[in-house]
Design a protein that fits this description.
Distance between the termini of chain A: 66 Å
Number of strands of chain A: 9
Strand order of the largest sheet of chain B: 2-4
Shape of chain A: elongated
Distance between the termini of chain B: 62 Å
Radius of gyration of chain B: 22 Å
Oligomer: heterodimer
Radius of gyration of chain A: 23 Å
Structural class of chain B: mainly alpha
Number of helices of chain A: 4
Order of helices and strands of chain A: HHEEEEEEHHEEE
Number of helices of chain B: 12
Structural class of chain A: alpha+beta
Strand content of chain B: under 5%
Order of helices and strands of chain B: HEHHHHHHHHHHEEEH
Helix content of chain B: 55-70%
Number of strands of chain B: 4
Largest sheet of chain B: 2 strands, antiparallel
Largest sheet of chain A: 5 strands, antiparallel
Shape of chain B: globular
């Protein structure tokens, strides 16, 4: 009897607590409300640390789109997402986007190099100009750090838009360094717009 | 020990509560307990293709007239797996076309054919028999059939993805796309060809989807049946590569977040006629599979 109870307990608990990424997408699909319609280009998947996936999505002229992201809470702070077009123009970003982090690192490197120059520079005029440049750069770095902080503490998880023409959008999802893994679900919904 | 019996019940209760809130909060971030064995790690690069419904819903059925006799014969049987997969895509598109123009009775018949093919491909669970019965019993309307076909389409995609069967999915989606283009082209009045015509514009804009269709097939290109359809599709690149865009000025809706620049696709009548012939030949290749 004890054995049977243990088996029932284990089975029910597993059923109750294990849910895969597809279930996440399924639930999101059921939550779509009229006039929005679930778009089958939606995608879900498991992400491990350091993994990047790129999803190419066709957005058709004549429709309004909403792209929303659901992320497992254990990896929320480590995920970065960007939506770009074929020219590389970024329309949406979530979390510490890779490009913003790269830009910050570059500016910090430049600051170190300016500090080194300051030690060797001769002439008060040149020194003054250098100090001015350093001050501006310091302000830029502080602003970028603030923006990155804000982006990771209160991020937007959806993007609504109307394509002026049919276009391919690229969604890049990266899970940074973390000891966790989790699901990232891209839920795309659309509706015909009034110009159609 | 007695209390241990209640634990599973508590677990189930917590589960059902969690699921309910998922539906209500729509797309908000939430926790998911990942079952690592069943969860699929996403591919590095994914090329998505809109469903036939997404294309047909954009056609103006007030100005376009329904053309009968252009959908594929729903009695044709296929022996090979690739033949079944490709033509399941064809029938999915045919059913959507019929439904778009209110041809309910025929559309339900095509839905029955799709269900039969799903059965043959081991996807019975994706389109349960009750679904078809419900449609046949009730005097179903366009909306209910659209809902059912959307759901079935999603279930087929899910089932194939869960089984890691990306190749089958690529074949179904490719054939569905070809049939969608074929049917839409049949509605074009070539005597009055004008590249600015909304239907011709929609067809030219498929250049974007074409790129994804081809890239999606490339992943399985080392397999004979995929390579065959991939090679067929290559002939379309001449038409799509030859298209140019002409920027246009329109009054922008300031209440919307509009991205991109409004433009028209420029195509010549001769090139478009050739494009129609090429699609016809690819479609023939698909429907004449063994």
């Amino acid at each position: 009897m004890k054995k049977l109870i243990s088996i029932i307990f284990c089975l029910v608990s597993i059923t109750a607590f294990s849910q895969n990424c597809n279930d996440f997408l399924n639930n999101s699909r059921l939550g779509v409300k009229y006039p929005w319609k679930f778009d089958n280009q939606s995608k879900t998947g498991l992400f491990l640390a350091g993994k990047t996936s790129v999803i190419n999505v066709v957005c058709q002229e004549g429709k309004d789109y909403r792209i929303a992201f659901s992320i497992s809470t254990n990896i929320t702070k480590n995920v970065s997402i960007s939506i770009t077009d074929e020219s590389g123009k970024e329309y949406f970003s979530y979390g510490a986007s890779a490009s913003a982090n790269k830009e910050l690192a570059k500016k910090k490197e430049l600051m170190v190099s300016l500090e080194n120059q300051k030690l060797t520079i001769k002439g008060s005029k040149a020194k003054l100009k250098l100090e001015g440049d350093m001050e501006n750069l310091k302000l830029e770095i502080e602003k970028m750090e603030r923006d990155l902080d804000y982006a990771s503490s209160s991020p937007k998880t959806s993007f609504e838009f109307t394509p002026a023409n049919t276009m391919n959008l690229t969604i890049t999802i990266t899970l940074g360094e973390t000891s966790y893994k989790g699901c990232v679900t891209t839920v795309i919904t659309n509706k015909n717009n009034s110009y159609n | 020990m007695k209390y241990l019996l209640f634990l599973p019940l508590v677990a189930m209760l917590m589960w059902s509560c969690g699921n309910g809130s998922d539906k209500e909060t729509d797309n908000n971030a939430d926790t998911v307990m990942v079952d690592n064995d069943s969860a699929e790690v996403m591919n590095e690069v994914v090329y998505q293709i809109p469903s036939p419904e997404d294309f047909f819903s954009l056609l103006n059925n007030k100005t376009l007239k329904f053309k009968s006799g252009i959908v594929h014969d729903d009695k044709k049987q296929y022996e090979s797996r690739a033949g079944k997969e490709l033509n399941m895509g064809v029938y999915l598109s045919d059913m959507t076309y019929l439904n778009t123009f209110g041809e309910m009775k025929t559309a339900v018949r095509y839905f029955a054919r799709i269900r039969e093919m799903a059965d043959q491909l081991g996807l019975s669970a994706a389109i349960p028999e009750q679904t078809l019965k419900k449609l046949e019993d009730s005097s179903a309307n366009t909306d209910s059939l659209r809902k059912v076909s959307d759901e079935s389409f999603f279930n087929v995609i899910q089932a194939l993805e869960e089984a890691g069967n990306g190749k089958s999915l690529a074949l179904i989606m490719t054939a569905g796309w070809v049939e969608t283009i074929y049917l839409s082209q049949q509605l074009v009045d070539m005597k009055k060809f004008d590249y600015k015509d909304p239907l011709i514009q929609r067809l030219c804009s498929q250049k974007i989807t074409y790129n994804n269709v081809v890239k999606n097939l490339e992943r399985f290109n080392d397999q004979q049946d995929v390579k065959a359809i991939y090679d067929q599709l290559q002939q379309l690149s001449t038409f799509f590569d030859g298209l140019t865009r002409e920027e246009i000025k329109t009054q922008q809706d300031t209440t919307k977040n509009i991205i991109g620049t409004p433009s028209l696709w420029k195509s010549e009548k001769e090139a478009f006629s050739k494009f129609m012939e090429q699609i016809l030949s690819i479609r023939k290749f698909i429907v004449e599979q063994a």
